[in-house]
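Lecture notes, part 5. Sequence design as translation. It can be helpful to think of inverse folding as translation between two languages: the language of shapes and the language of residues. The source text, in C-alpha cells, appears below.
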C-alpha cells in the first residue's frame, strides 16, 4: 500500500490549492514532529483520510475535517479534533519549511484553539512548486469519485437550473459527509430565492449561476457542511441577513435547518439558530404542532356523565376548532 503522508513539494501544492477552496484532511501526530502524518486528498472523505493517517502513523489519536488557507493562516474545520492540534500541525508544517499559523474550529465553526504568531507575517510566501500528479491512495474503498476541481468555462457548465426539491434535500444530506460549494441569490420574496449547489464547481461560478437564474442583484457563495440540524456556510462572499433569508427559503422547501454564517477565515458573521416559529415550519412539522394542540385540549377536557347533548357540544367545541385550524394551516400553501 502506497504512503498517504503528504510532504515536500506535494504538500506545498496542496497549500496553494487550499487558498481556492476547502480540502479534506486527516492528521495523526507521532512522537516527534517529523513523524506526524498529514493526509490530504481532493476527493476522499475526511473520516477516511483520518483512518488512513492513523493506520500509517505511530500515534493512537487522529483528527479529520477540511481546511482552507487564507494568507498565512490555515483554518481547520474539524469533524474530529484532538488536543494540541494547532501546535502539532504548525510544528509539522515548519519541518516542511511552510510557515503557517493554524486555527482549529469545530464542525459548527466555533474556535477550539489557535497557534498564531503575527510576527511571522514578515516571512516569505510559500513558493508554489511545479505541477504534480496527485498520487493515488491504494487499497481503499473509493466513494463516488469527484472530478478534479479545475477551472471550467461558463459555456461548458452543465448546470441548467437552481437546486431545489428532492435534489436539494439529497445534497444537504451529502453535506453531512463533505463540504459542498454553493451559490445563493436572494429574490424579492421567499419564492424567488435561488440556491445552486454542485459537487465539482467553484463557489464563484455557482454564485454567478445563481444570479443568472434569480431576480436579485446580490449573491453569496462559498462552501457548506451540515451537522445535525445546523448548516454551517463558510463564505467567500455574503449578503445581508443571509442566515435568516436562507433559513426561510429552506423552510419553504420543507427543510428545517438552523444556519450559521462564517467568513473565509472561519469567523462567525451571523446565525439564525432559534427554534422556528410555527408559521415557518415545514408542513409535516406544522401538522405535528397543530395535532399536539388538539391532543392537549382533548386531554384537558372532562365531560361530566350527567351533561346534556347541548353541554357536550360546548365541551367538544375547543378540540374541534383546533382540529379545523390544523387542517386549514396545513393546506393553506
Amino acid at each position: 500500500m502506497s504512503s498517504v503522508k503528504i510532504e515536500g513539494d506535494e504538500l506545498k501544492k496542496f497549500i496553494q490549492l487550499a487558498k481556492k477552496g476547502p480540502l479534506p484532511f486527516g492528521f495523526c501526530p507521532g512522537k516527534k514532529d517529523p513523524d506526524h502524518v498529514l493526509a490530504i486528498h481532493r476527493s476522499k472523505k475526511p473520516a477516511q483520510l483520518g483512518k488512513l493517517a492513523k493506520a500509517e502513523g505511530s500515534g493512537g489519536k487522529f483528527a479529520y475535517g477540511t481546511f482552507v488557507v487564507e494568507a498565512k493562516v490555515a483554518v481547520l474545520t474539524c469533524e474530529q479534533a484532538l488536543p494540541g492540534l494547532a501546535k502539532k500541525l504548525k510544528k509539522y508544517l515548519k519541518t516542511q519549511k511552510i510557515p503557517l499559523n493554524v486555527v482549529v474550529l469545530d464542525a459548527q465553526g466555533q474556535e477550539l484553539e489557535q497557534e498564531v504568531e503575527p510576527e511571522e507575517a514578515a516571512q516569505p510566501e510559500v513558493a508554489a512548486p511545479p505541477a504534480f500528479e496527485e498520487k493515488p491512495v491504494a487499497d481503499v474503498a473509493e466513494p463516488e469519485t469527484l472530478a478534479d476541481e479545475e477551472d471550467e468555462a461558463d459555456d461548458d457548465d452543465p448546470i441548467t437550473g437552481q437546486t431545489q426539491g428532492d435534489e436539494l434535500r439529497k445534497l444537504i444530506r451529502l453535506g453531512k459527509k463533505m463540504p459542498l460549494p454553493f451559490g445563493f441569490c436572494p429574490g424579492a420574496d421567499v419564492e424567488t430565492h435561488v440556491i445552486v449547489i454542485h459537487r465539482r464547481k467553484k463557489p464563484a461560478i455557482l454564485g454567478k449561476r445563481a444570479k443568472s437564474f434569480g431576480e436579485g442583484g446580490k449573491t453569496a457563495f462559498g462552501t457548506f457542511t451540515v451537522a445535525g440540524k445546523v448548516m454551517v456556510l463558510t463564505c467567500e462572499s455574503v449578503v445581508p441577513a443571509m442566515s435568516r433569508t436562507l433559513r426561510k427559503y429552506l423552510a419553504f422547501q420543507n427543510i428545517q435547518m438552523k444556519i450559521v454564517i462564517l467568513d473565509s477565515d472561519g469567523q462567525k458573521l451571523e446565525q439564525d439558530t432559534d427554534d422556528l416559529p410555527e408559521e415557518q415550519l415545514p408542513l409535516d412539522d406544522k401538522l405535528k404542532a397543530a395535532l399536539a394542540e388538539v391532543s392537549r385540549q382533548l386531554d384537558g377536557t372532562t365531560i361530566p356523565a350527567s351533561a346534556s347533548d347541548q353541554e357536550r357540544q360546548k365541551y367538544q367545541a375547543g378540540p374541534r376548532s383546533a382540529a379545523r385550524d390544523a387542517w386549514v394551516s396545513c393546506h393553506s400553501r
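The translated text above is only one of many valid answers, since several sequences can fold into similar shapes. Confidence is low (pLDDT under 50) at residues 119-135, 137-156, 279-284.
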